[in-house]
Amino acid sequence: ARCIGKNQERTLAIIKPDAIRYLGDIISAVYENGFTIARMRMVKLSQNEVMYFYSEHKSKDFFPRLVDFMTSGSVVAIELVGPDAINRWRSIIGPTDSQKAKEQGPLLLRARFGTDGTRNALHGSDSTTSAQREISYFFGSKYGTNTACYNDTTCC
Ligand code: RTP
Ligand code: MG
């Protein structure tokens, strides 16, 4: 649907290359946690695309490792909708480092499907600004006119 209801929020999740084999379990977890999937797309990103998507990290020491990892296979980008979706998705996946996630709780998705600080199975947008940018990146107008609506009070 073009519009989402009041108190609903959108975020971008990415199933990273190390977790593509767990696609089914991750989709199940998405619905078990009360999210709706608005759009979903599987794609193999180029190095340039990953460098652009993660450009906020371009000066970090882990950046080359991140680019290698994110281009090592296909990813699935998912536009999630739900109440407090941005923060809630990030709390369900857990901390960046999958080993820390395993210490925090075995049900965290990075604990279940991730390996370490880079190979961590899943992405989640960290703010409304990032969510809008990242959703546009994967589902921009060239993929159709089903444009996302972000401001619940003016949209529906
Ligand atoms: P994401 O953006 O993918 O949702 O992850 P995040 O917010 O939890 O972590 P962020 O700091 O934005 O880092 C982006 C991705 O870079 C890789 N990374 N590796 N020390 C390391 O080896 C390291 N630190 C970060 C991870 O794949 C992380 O998700
Ligand atoms: Mg991040």
UniProtKB/TrEMBL annotation:
Name the chain's protein.
Answer: DM10 domain-containing protein
Q: Which family does it belong to?
A: Belongs to the NDK family.
Residues engaged in binding ATP? K16, F62, R90, T96, R110, N120
Positions spanned in the full protein: 84 to 239 of 373
Residues at the active site: H123 (pros-phosphohistidine intermediate)
Where does it live in the cell? Cytoplasm, Cytoskeleton, Cilium axoneme
